[in-house]
């Protein structure tokens, strides 16, 4: 961050259109208020609910989406035992000696290099202006055999595009040392995938579409689950480093579980950093770049980062959602006021993400 004037600083970020900046207020970091990051109760998402109840949820989502693009969900239906089991198996995986994690390194994936598998510490730079993220992670992408609601068979072109690793990588490589990793993570993956599909129906309502308006774009969604492991930042690092740099997520939306360490921070449109502290029994949901595009920038893809200053290790489990790889969605008519121009051209979610990643990596090359 470079100094601008005495009361503000400039934050540099990657975007799908090249580097951008944001002005940051010098007001101290503080906890978000319930209006800034609301808690939305999803009890009424159950199949026996009536449309009016789901509309009520949609109205709250719309307010959150147009305010800071972040909200907590409670009564989401995900069993806490699924979470605790995935959490402890993840700790068992990350706490191993690096040589034992190496076989699952993403570089050994035959089909999904750099996408699935283990990413060692300090190998990711989500914001090149802020240096390497002090995290390691373990990632999976969509696999129809883990999707309880998969509509099979998948179209051939999708089978090719999804590129499932035939040997079951990366779990084949964790089976020996952490055999319970797969059996703990997959049930959570399945539950969050189902929750995501339900939320997408609320998003459709919140955007003035029919409840099933996005269903056919979500039959084999381009999703990925990551487990992030953040060692604590030491005293020197706290001033200079990030656990994960300031960024926006790339696709449609993210459902994130965080442990009770804290450290997630969210930037308001006004340039104020807010803490999004862990709240028992909740997930955090945030909108991402592609959602912002198709809503003509009405729903915000909000900048966030993590600084793990808890003194202990921190785990988070984000689940990123995009439309089916072959689906494209232009600006939604329901997001345009009378006479309002569309701000973005139509592009598929997948092409958008590729462009976003290209720009992010370009910044790294420019640094050298
Ligand atoms: O760990 C967190 O709380 C946030 C992680 C995140 O923003 C990401 O993985 O994109
Ligand atoms: Fe993120």
Annotation keywords:
binds 2-oxoglutaric acid; alpha+beta; 368 residues; 29% helix; 16 strands; binds fe (ii) ion; 5-stranded mixed β-sheet; 9 helices; single chain; Jelly Rolls
Could you explain how this protein is built, in words?
The mean pLDDT is 93. The chain has helices at 51-67, 80-94, 98-101, 156-162, 171-174, 180-206, 235-240, 289-294, 349-367, and strands at 2-5, 8-13, 20-25, 30-31, 39-41, 70-74, 117-119, 136-141, 224-230, 244-247, 253-258, 264-267, 273-275, 283-287, 304-306, 314-321. It is built from 9 helices and 16 strands. The chain has a single domain, classed as Sandwich (Jelly Rolls), CATH 2.60.120.330. Helix 1 crosses helix 6 (180-206). The strands form 3 sheets. The protein has an 8-stranded mixed beta sheet. A 5-stranded mixed beta sheet has the order 4-13-12-15-10, with no helix packed on it. The chain is of the alpha+beta class. The site of fe (ii) ion (FE2) has 3 residues, from loops. Pfam families: 2OG-FeII_Oxy (PF03171), DIOX_N (PF14226). This is 2OG-Fe oxygenase family protein. Belongs to the iron/ascorbate-dependent oxidoreductase family.
The span between the termini is 19 Å
Assign the CATH architecture.
Sandwich
Q: Mean of residue pLDDT?
A: 93
**How big a fraction of the residues is strand?**
15-25%
Share of residues in helices: 25-40%
Strand order of the largest sheet: 5-6-14-11-16-9-8-7
Number of helices: 9
CATH topology: Jelly Rolls
- Domain count: 1
Q: What is the 3D form?
A: globular
Give the C-alpha Rg: 20 Å
Series of secondary-structure elements, N-terminal to C-terminal: EEEEEHEHHEEHHHEHEEEEEHEEH
This entry's quaternary arrangement is single chain
CATH class descriptor name: Mainly Beta
Q: List unreliable stretches of 5+ residues.
A: none
The CATH superfamily turns out to be B-lactam Antibiotic, Isopenicillin N Synthase, Chain
Keywords: Iron, Metal-binding, Oxidoreductase
Organism: Podospora fimiseda
Family: Belongs to the iron/ascorbate-dependent oxidoreductase family.
InterPro entries: DIOX_N, IPNS-like_FE2OG_OXY, IPNS-like_sf, Oxoglu/Fe-dep_dioxygenase_dom
